[in-house]
Amino acid sequence: MKKFITMVQNGQHLLFDEMREASKLMFHEATPLNEIESFLIALAKKGETAHEVAALATVMKSFALEVPVKAARYMDNCGTGGDGVNSFNISTTTAFVMAGAGVKIAKHGNRKISSSSGSSDVLEALGIHTDLTIDETVELLNEHGIAFLYAPNIHPKLKRIGQVRRQIGKPTIFNLVGPLTNPITLDTQFTGINRPEFTMEYAAVMKMLGRERGIVVSGAGGMDEASLAGQNEFVLVDQQDLIPFSLTPEDIGLKSAPLEAIRGGNADENAVIIRALLNGKRGAYFDTVVFNAAIGLFAYGKVDRIKDGVKLAIDTILSGKALGKLEAVVAFSEAREKQGVME
């Protein structure tokens, strides 16, 4: 490991095979935690490359537990996190909206690493247990078209690295890799990063990993979601093509709003925001989810234009379909919890 630490500290980008070897060492129980920490900090300081991200994603997915789902067109809209904006859980809320519109969502997520409330934290606050077995997760996905894959359950080898990430307390390459390591084969993906200069490289990684279609966004104000605060930078992955484009909320009929308007809190506070929004409460929270859902619906192929996605997302919320998906997942989760207690 020390060889790779030195190379990266000297500003050297690792080739795909070199990064694959270093990644396997990171997951090896015998590798000292302080060496993993030094390597991750050095990578972040140097700046990660597409080949480094793709190599780590490949190794991490190879160690993941199998999730045997039926063949279908699945989508993940997990973002990289670590943007420091302290917004509410936008992608988690967006997942319920897209599922309500008929998209099959297999969303990868984790607890908070560098935010106030991670995806799994807010799901638990909403009444959704994150300790479902793999069989139960597959059943949920088959029954309701949406499931949440809690990363530590799927990636058992991440436990030691999780300790290191918490020690570092800042975004690392694992933030970038997280959305790319879903154990379910994804045809399409919508993910956000808070590095506008890296959107093209990240889209290239998605293409390397076999996504037929997808969108990467780096939001206004440094967000890893599409933001109402100004111009957002995107790259569309369409088969072999990588197509950059920009959008403001006004371009698709939404009002702009500052980042302060979508601040979140702890998991319980964010759960209240999510329930109000899915019950139709309009405002910046609502519009932010509509914006992101519209892009996800376009990436999935549900609509031909993002503006059409806005209409579909609004209709899905106001009709109660998005809230219905939330309630269905809560009910499924509670039933499995009761069954487990009785057994």
TrEMBL record:
Its cofactor is Mg(2+). SUPFAM superfamilies: Nucleoside phosphorylase/phosphoribosyltransferase catalytic domain (SSF52418), Nucleoside phosphorylase/phosphoribosyltransferase N-terminal domain (SSF47648). The keyword Amino-acid biosynthesis applies. It catalyses: N-(5-phospho-beta-D-ribosyl)anthranilate + diphosphate = 5-phospho-alpha-D-ribose 1-diphosphate + anthranilate. Keywords: Amino-acid biosynthesis, Aromatic amino acid biosynthesis, Glycosyltransferase, Magnesium, Metal-binding, Transferase, Tryptophan biosynthesis. Anthranilate 2 binds at R165. Its EC number is 2.4.2.18. Binds 2 magnesium ions per monomer. Anthranilate 1 binds at G79, N110. 5-phospho-alpha-D-ribose 1-diphosphate binds at residues 79, 82-83, 87, 89-92, 107-115, 119. Pathway: Amino-acid biosynthesis; L-tryptophan biosynthesis; L-tryptophan from chorismate: step 2/5. Mg(2+) 2 binds at D224, E225. Mg(2+) 1 binds at S91, E225. One of its GO terms (molecular function) is anthranilate phosphoribosyltransferase activity. InterPro entries: Anthranilate_Pribosyl_Tfrase, Glycosyl_Trfase_fam3, Glycosyl_Trfase_fam3_N_dom, Glycosyl_Trfase_fam3_N_dom_sf, Nuc_phospho_transferase. Residues 73-323 form the Glycosyl transferase family domain. Pfam families: Glycos_trans_3N, Glycos_transf_3. Residues 3-64 form the Glycosyl transferase family 3 N-terminal domain. Catalyzes the transfer of the phosphoribosyl group of 5-phosphorylribose-1-pyrophosphate (PRPP) to anthranilate to yield N-(5'-phosphoribosyl)-anthranilate (PRA). NCBIfam families: trpD. Homodimer. Belongs to the anthranilate phosphoribosyltransferase family. HAMAP family: TrpD. This is Anthranilate phosphoribosyltransferase. It comes from Viridibacillus soli. The gene is trpD.
